[in-house]
Amino acid sequence: MTDAILLSDPEILRQLSLLPGWTRRGEAITKRYHFATFPAGIAFIGRVSDVAEAQQHHPDVDIRYTTITFTLSTHDSGGITAKDIALAAAIEQLRASEPAP
């Protein structure tokens, strides 16, 4: 599958420049989101899980009260692929579509 091919370092940097707040951490990309309440963060995870399941690519999720961190890496490929970029973009789109607090 072509989307499971590791991206080059320059391509990762280029893609991250299009995803505000996403950063590279080793062989993964990550972003932290803040929510007004714990239930709001958990509800967002639920929406992300629907998209992740549809893409058959699942993030690592860290929950710290009202702070949710998503970490994406294509483990079978050993690093960052187009799958990670696509899911990060989908997460961004979900967050942007939420009403302002």
Shape: globular
Mean pLDDT: 94
Rounded to an integer in angstroms, the radius of gyration calculated over CA atoms is 13 Å
Assembly level = single chain
What is the percentage of strand-forming residues?
15-25%
The count of domains is 1
Largest sheet geometry = 4 strands, antiparallel
Describe the structure.
The protein is of the alpha+beta class and 101 residues long. The chain contains 3 helices and 4 strands, in the order H-E-E-H-E-E-H. It has one domain: Transcriptional coactivator/pterin dehydratase (Gyrase A, domain 2). It has a 4-stranded antiparallel beta sheet. Strand 3 and strand 4 form a beta hairpin. Helix 2 packs across helix 3. It is globular, with a radius of gyration of 13 Å.
Write the SSE topology:
Layout (H helix, E strand, L loop, with lengths): L8 H8 L6 E3 L2 E7 L3 H18 L4 E5 L2 E6 L9 H15 L5
Antiparallel strand pairs: 1-2, 2-4, 3-4
Q: What attributes characterize this protein structure?
A:
single chain, 101 residues, alpha+beta, Gyrase A, domain 2, four-stranded antiparallel sheet, 4 strands, 41% helix
In short:
This protein has 101 residues and is α+β, with helices and mostly antiparallel strands.
